[in-house]
Write a structure and sequence with these properties.
Blueprint (H helix, E strand, L loop, with lengths): L2 H6 L2 H14 L1 H8 L3 H11 L2 E6 L4 H18 L7 E6 L31 E2 L10 H6 L1 H9 L5 E4 L7 H10 L4 E7 L11 H7 L4 E8 L2 H4 L6 H12 L5 E6 L1 E2 L33 E5 L10 H7 L7 E5 L3 H10 L7 E5 L9 H8 L5 E5 L2 H12 L5 E5 L7 H10 L5 E7 L5 H11 L6 E7 L2 H4 L7 H5 L6 H8 L3 E2 L2 E5 H11 L3 H13 L10 E7 L9 H10 L2 E6 L9 E6 L1 H8 L16 H9 L21
Parallel strand pairs: 1-2, 2-4, 3-8, 4-5, 5-6, 6-7, 7-9, 9-10, 10-11, 11-12, 12-13, 13-14, 14-15, 15-18
Antiparallel strand pairs: 16-17, 18-19, 19-20
Helix pairs in contact: 2-3, 2-4, 3-4, 5-7, 7-8, 11-12, 13-14, 14-15, 16-17, 17-22
């Protein structure tokens, strides 16, 4: 469409165009706003719908500078009435809040494989209580003025690891009493004081409070004092905060400890708020409950305690990370979750929960979104029979093993509405089996978002067949039969189960370059049914879990160089139909690690000096003018 045509479109149409661009491709919204004044007026509503302040809480001058900057921008563009969400984030802080349009902690789950459960966050556990001084509060007045300037604020997102200043809470109550307050990090630091801090209580009792993250620690991290924050926040949920709808409970480790020592000492019970406060005791009305590190027995808080504090029948989203079999068994028998739509269920140790996951998944109503990590084989029938017809988004992580083609075909048959899928598959030297997996994924009619964790385990490579002749001809002039015959009975270093052929196959599986990523996209896209939806995004995330090679120093350089992750997205331009944009994930970090680390090959060196290099040079012969195998490697092409 030409610029001239845009000049004659009605304002209502341009507003719909701007909204569509905001929801689907925010970068194009900025370009659309530059076409003419009419387009800018329509786009402005969405350009300023959400603004973000990057602050340094200990620098009053920077706070003032950031607030003044946004005040001038809004006044100059007359956009005060367009701002619906204002986010306050620390400079250089996490991307979680700033990328989170819908304020759902589970959104990132459907974008990539979430390994959050592998390592609990580390913070200062025994922080001393220090009330906010008047001078500190005064430094935030320019930010409070900006909040007052905004006409129709719906959401205030506060992410800094610093107690929400009194002036911000006050202006929220006075100017925007219907605004929802999202606090990412909040702790009662005065629970051991003779009197609980009135400002902390004011935050907890605020009618604006909509979402909080609760951080709590083990006694080993807070001794000689108990950490009663989890108990206190359960009390907050139980009617103290009337409009609280989302809670995340986060078990943390002290940042001063390299590991957590679980204490067997009995905890002292929480005596309650001091002095006694007349608080309502009616159950809360949470809609989203996220329990991180739910297996922790340090605080002995299970789902039964939360069930007493809030009405589980109101829950729409439940997130159980590192859930135990005991917890799930209790939930299967006692919990009522008629409105549950989204579930994340992760087991840190899947076997102790054997049987309980299946019972729990069979008890809850049909889900729209499910993220499961554990023994997939145990629960697959329960997932597909009970939830398959209703599922829109699904993530399955078996910890060790990738899904096979028959399982993907079963997903296709029993999950007809599936739009987003995140699974692990096993690479097998780009052979027919691997290609058939990609083709099976392409037959899912409604699938538009796909994330694949490519398992490159050498345990799998040890059982993979010899390469086909067609593959060998495009890879290396050296005869593979000669290599296989010479080394198939040769033990690789101190690993009797593996020989040089297995090591070679493992390296080939690891190698994922841009050409292979595009080929995988094309294979999936070409397999889509004629009347099905086109694939819009694909993530490829190679992983070498359960491999002795990743623990061998000689192979670190290989892994960091050839095991690359990619994100592919279909072009949104109507004049580039079928076009795909591709970018490597983590490229800068990889280049920083690999720079100057070509230790496996020196100029004039003999390949036989290193068994690793001998295998590499068998796979990828030296190209003319190259100085290292880093210039010569490439992925094994798919066998089509």
């Amino acid at each position: 469409m030409s610029v001239l045509c845009l000049d004659y479109l009605p304002t209502e149409i341009l507003q719909h165009v701007a909204q569509y661009l905001h929801d689907t491709h925010i970068t194009s919204l900025a370009s659309f706003s530059l076409v003419n004044k009419t387009c800018y007026a329509s786009a402005k509503v969405w350009l300023f719908r959400s603004i973000r302040l990057q602050v340094t809480v200990t620098d009053p001058a920077q706070l003032n500078q950031e607030a003044v900057k946004w005040t001038k921008i809004l006044q100059r563009t007359q956009s005060q009435r367009h701002v619906c969400q204002l986010s306050i984030v620390p400079r250089g802080g996490s991307e979680q809040a700033r990328n989170d349009k819908s304020h759902s902690w589970l959104d990132q789950t459907w974008q990539s494989i979430d390994h959050e459960q592998q390592q609990s966050p580390r913070y200062e556990g025994n922080e001393p209580f220090k009330p906010i001084e008047e001078e500190e509060d005064r430094a935030w007045l320019p930010v409070a003025g900006l909040i007052k300037l905004v006409s129709y604020l719906k959401d205030l997102v506060y992410e800094p690891d610093y107690t929400l200043p009194p002036c911000l809470l006050r202006v929220l109550h006075e100017q925007h009493p219907q605004c929802r307050l999202h606090i990412f990090w909040f702790r009662f630091k005065s629970l051991h004081e003779p009197t609980v801090d009135p400002h902390e209580l004011a935050i907890a009792r605020s009618p604006c409070l909509h979402k909080i993250t609760v951080r709590y620690f083990s006694w080993e991290d807070t001794r000689p004092k108990e950490d009663w924050n989890l108990d206190a926040h359960i009390r907050v949920v139980a009617g103290m905060a009337p409009n609280l709808r989302e809670v995340r409970s986060l078990f943390c480790k002290s940042k001063h400890c390299s590991f957590l020592i679980r204490s067997n000492r009995m905890r002292k019970p929480w005596p309650g708020f001091s002095p006694d406060i007349d608080l309502p005791s009616s159950p809360g009305a949470l809609e989203c409950l996220s329990l991180f590190d739910a297996q922790s027995t340090v605080h002995d808080v299970g789902l039964d305690r939360w069930n007493e504090a809030t009405d589980f029948s109101r829950l729409r989203v439940l997130d159980l990370c590192r859930a135990t079999g005991q917890m799930l068994s209790w939930a299967a028998k006692n919990a009522s979750l008629p409105n549950l739509k989204e579930l994340r269920l992760h087991h840190h140790h899947p076997k102790p929960a054997f049987g309980s996951s299946s019972a729990f998944l069979s008890m809850i109503p049909p889900l729209e979104k499910l993220d499961y990590a554990g023994d997939v084989e145990e629960v697959l029938d329960s997932i597909l029979d009970k939830h398959g017809p209703s599922l829109l988004k699904l993530s399955l992580d078996d910890h060790f093993d990738g899904l096979d083609v028959p399982t993907v075909q079963e997903l296709q048959e029993k999950c007809p509405r599936l739009e987003s899928l995140c699974i692990c598959t096993t690479r097998s030297l780009s052979d027919e089996t691997e290609v058939s997996m990609y083709r099976a994924l392409g037959k899912m009619r409604h699938l538009t978002e796909l994330s694949l964790e490519l398992a490159c385990s050498d345990f799998a490579a040890a059982s993979q067949r010899v390469l086909t002749q067609s593959q060998r001809e495009g890879l290396s002039p050296a005869p593979y039969e000669e290599f296989d015959g010479a080394f198939e009975n040769t033990t690789w270093q101190a690993h009797p189960r593996f020989n040089h052929v297995h090591v070679r196959n493992t390296i080939l599986n690891w190698a994922v370059d841009e050409a292979l990523a595009r080929s995988i996209w094309e294979t999936i896209d070409e397999s889509k049914a004629g009347d099905g939806k086109r694939l819009q995004s694909l993530k490829l995330l190679p992983t070498a879990f359960r491999t002795f090679l990743s623990r061998s120093g000689d192979f670190v350089e290989i892994l960091e160089c050839v095991s690359r992750s990619y994100s592919l997205e279909r072009s949104v331009r109507d004049d580039d139909e079928g076009g795909v944009t591709i970018r490597e994930l983590g490229r800068r970090a990889r280049e920083a690690k690999c720079e100057g680390r070509h230790v496996l090959e020196q100029p004039g060196g003999n390949p036989t000096d290193s068994p690793v290099l001998e295998i590499i040079r068998h796979i990828w012969p030296r190209n003319e003018g190259s100085t290292s195998w880093h210039d010569d490697w490439r992925s094994l092409p798919l066998l089509k």
